[in-house]
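Repro:
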Amino acid sequence: MDADTRIHPETFNAIDRALAGDRVIGGATGVALERWSLGLAATYLFIMPMVVLTGMDTGVVFCRREDFGELGGYDERRLVAEDAAFLWRLKKLGRERGQKLARVTEAKAIVSTRKFDEHGDWHWFTQLIPRALPALLSASAERRLADKYWYGR
């Protein structure tokens, strides 16, 4: 989870229940935003179909220690989306074992809107998405995006 995320009081109980059997390899809690606006709601609605289609969420990402180790943990060379890359690898490992990712949405993390506060409530559409495709295709574009959005200040 991100450093400025607050966890739900039942987070660890919900994760424990999700991992109690052997059908779930890991997953995430999902998030609730600390504030809402029209731009934030549009961003949330834009992202949710991808969450539903992939079964991958955000918030508190969890798995068993041995699976984390087997996958080598997070790829710290990645500048962005290391959590998504980890979940893709975890999902693939689970598929090989007949396990799935879980979305533990009854204990959503409260996510900071500081990036929206800094860049504007519509910045996903005006700044982030237009820079995302070039960042996928070029290491230097990825570095520029990461520096501007995540590491600039």
